Amino acid sequence: MTDVLIADLAQLSSLRVISRGSVMPFKGTKKTLSEIARQLNVDAVVEGSVLRMGNQVRITAELIDTSTDRHLWARTFERKVEDVLSLQSEVARAIAGEVRARMTPHESARLLRNRSVNPAALEAYLKGRFYWNKFTEEPLVKSVEYYEQATGLDPGYAVAFAGLSESWTGLGWIGARSWEEVHPKAKEAANKALEIDPDLGEAHAAMAAVSLREWNWKTAEQQDRKAIALNPNHSTAHLSYSNILRYLGRPEESIAEGRRAVELDPLAVLTNEVLGTAYLSARRYDLVIQQCKQALEMHPDESSLHHLLGWAYAYKKMYEPAIDSIEKSLTLDGVPPALSPDIAYIHTMRGQKDEARAILDRLLALSQKAPINAGLIALIYAGLGEREETLTWLEKAYEQHSPMMTWLKVDARFDNVRDEPRFQELMRRVGLI
């Protein structure tokens, strides 16, 4: 119920609506509404309850001004379970009217649509969304299963197809599945979502994510801009757009989109990580450290934040805390430091080339037995200053469609080969120049 209500209200460009991921940690909390409002930087909070009685659903909702604890509005709504989406739109319209939100004709029409959904499909979709937010391999696999269940139960469920696309893309992005495996599935699901509902912001965001991984930068940017126009409060679209702008070498725009994503989903790991990475690509390392430390107060065991923090320290030549942070990240992910390209590169920054070569030799031996991301091998050679080997392994990374290739334009670690014709050709082939 919370997820659907947020999705409806988020379509209104005159409101700033906090994403579900940052709202749900307060469920059952003992914090006061004013404390919650301060943490989320909001003016009002919607409280409510849901009661299901057989095939009937009753929603009680209240709108509260957190500055005064004054109840601005309260109502009870009741419908059949299969009409729950229309019921949620009715609640959203009532709240929007109470706060006098300005609605464009298009936004008003979206909220007035009568929609029905298979209750089991809705439940499967919400479970898929829950697991997607964790953005690691096992939860992403579960999210695929739930989204497939939702689309099987309701073949016209556009937002579930969009979620399915994002989960397949996510599995490819984190390296849990090959691009060859996930690409057709992700694109098919995104196309299906757009076919069912061309005005669904989530569908355009899903297609933007696929286009980014295709290195189709023009389409990726167009799709994310469309997603944001349709749903200005869709934090995932803003963080995706931040990534696209960063890879294209537009740091100020990337930071602005990252900040917007954090405003909409301030407690989420992904939004904080994306903003921190935007700062990193802009080479504003003190801001990276500040962002990571703030996020780690909320997520102390999040490996990606420790990893990002480690690189900020490394670029500032603070090598001991850099190694500590990277090793913390590796420990959380269950990866031995003896096989870490990150640790190897930092060794090269410290002038410890023998230690870096020892890690490189282990990885090269491992690559003879199992597939390995060639971009990570290229990274170590770049640190060692071996330009020919760096370029050779980057060409292998291109053949693998490695995510490393998206970083070529902005990654400081490849500065020493940036003027090489082979490097410039790779950037052209990836579409970055």
Task: Give a quick rundown of the structure.
The protein is mainly alpha-helical and 433 residues long. Helices cover 64% and strands 7% of the residues. It is built from 22 helices and 3 strands.
Explain what you see.
64% of the residues lie in helices and 7% in strands. By secondary structure, the chain is mostly helical. The chain has helices at 2-10, 20-23, 33-40, 84-98, 105-112, 119-132, 137-153, 158-173, 179-196, 201-213, 217-230, 235-247, 251-264, 269-281, 285-298, 303-315, 319-333, 341-349, 353-367, 374-384, 387-399, 421-430, and strands at 44-53, 56-65, 70-80. Strand 2 and strand 3 form a beta hairpin. Strands 1-2-3 form a 3-stranded antiparallel beta sheet, covered by helices on one side. It contains 22 helices and 3 strands. The chain starts with a helix and ends with a helix.
H and E string: HHHEEEHHHHHHHHHHHHHHHHHHH
CATH architecture of the largest domain: 3-Layer(aba) Sandwich
| CATH H-tier superfamily of the largest domain | TolB, N-terminal domain
Q: How many individual domains? A: 3
| Fraction in helix | 55-70%
Helix tally equals 22
Radius of gyration: 23 Å
Give the percentage of residues in beta strands.
5-15%
Characterize the biggest β-sheet: 3 strands, antiparallel
Total E-strand runs: 3
Globally, the shape reads: globular
Taking the alpha carbons of the first and last residues, their distance comes to 45 Å
CATH class of the largest domain: Alpha Beta
